[in-house]
Amino acid sequence: MHNLRLGTYAAGGAMAPHSHKECSFTIVLEGSYRENIRGREVEHKPGAMLFYPAGETHSQSFGPIDSRKLIFRPDDTWLEFLKDQKVPLAQAPFLRTASVTELARRVVRELQASDSFSAMVMEGTLLELVGAFGRKCETGSQHEAIPGWLRQCRDLLEQQSGAAATHELLAGHVHKHPVHVAKAFRKAYGETIGDCQRRLRLEKARQQLCKGRTRLAEVALECGFANQAHFSRSFKAAFGTTPARYRADRP
């Protein structure tokens, strides 16, 4: 269905300039990579959704941990609809939102479940992903300039790896009102400040599981979870597997 597949890419690896005969969508599930395409260089992280036009040359270099992508080809009817709505597919558009992350994880869970209803659920979820992508691109929200003070808020959260930071703390850091910061952050990044912190905590925990054999209880505390049980529940909800199983499945 839609040539749907999961791709895994080794940490520190690179892909020389190349192109594909067919167009496709890619969603970053884990890890990160820098990409050169159409004269621009962009770093893509979990939650990024990208469209690759057929024949578009691009190259990629992967980050310090293994990366995983969900890749699929949209139906021709979907492509025609996007073009009719003036979505600039020829420009290889991309976006990054929390809603993409949740929908992509649902597809992965259905791939793993693979029961008699999985194909139907995946078809609907892929269509929802493409619809969300088209809506964002059509409104031009992916190209809206993000003010420097808001990038400072995002940078602070990433530097702290998802450690608890109140709206008041962030607002004080950039000399803005907390309500204004909260609304602007969600509009610009497609997720709340709390969702961003949660995602960063989980990504930090995932990296810890990949790197070493630290006890799960210690990983939980280091990454800001109340206890190991809270960590396990949150990790399974996000990645579809427990921290122990995730670690055991690593090579």
Structure described in brief:
49% of the residues lie in helices and 18% in strands. With 251 residues, it is of the alpha+beta class.
Short key terms for the protein model shown above:
alpha+beta; 251 residues; Arc Repressor Mutant, subunit A; Jelly Rolls; single chain; 10 helices; globular
Fold and architecture overview:
This protein has 251 residues and is α+β, with helices and mostly antiparallel strands. It has two domains: 5-143, Regulatory protein AraC (Jelly Rolls, Sandwich), CATH 2.60.120.280; 148-248, Arc Repressor Mutant, subunit A (Orthogonal Bundle). It has ten helices and nine strands. A five-stranded antiparallel sheet has the order 1-8-3-6-9, with helices on one face. Strands 2-7-4-5 form a four-stranded antiparallel sheet, with no helix packed on it. A hairpin with a 2-residue loop joins strand 4 and strand 5 (40-44). 27% of the residues are buried. The model has no long low-confidence stretch (mean pLDDT 87).
How do the strands and helices of this protein lay out in sequence?
Layout: E1 5-9, E2 14-18, E3 24-30, E4 33-37, E5 40-44, E6 48-52, E7 58-62, E8 67-72, H1 76-84, E9 94-96, H2 98-113, H3 118-139, H4 148-159, H5 167-174, H6 178-189, H7 193-211, H8 216-222, H9 228-239, H10 243-248
Antiparallel strand pairs: 1-8, 2-7, 3-6, 3-8, 4-5, 4-7, 6-9
Helix pairs in contact: 2-3, 4-5, 5-6, 8-9
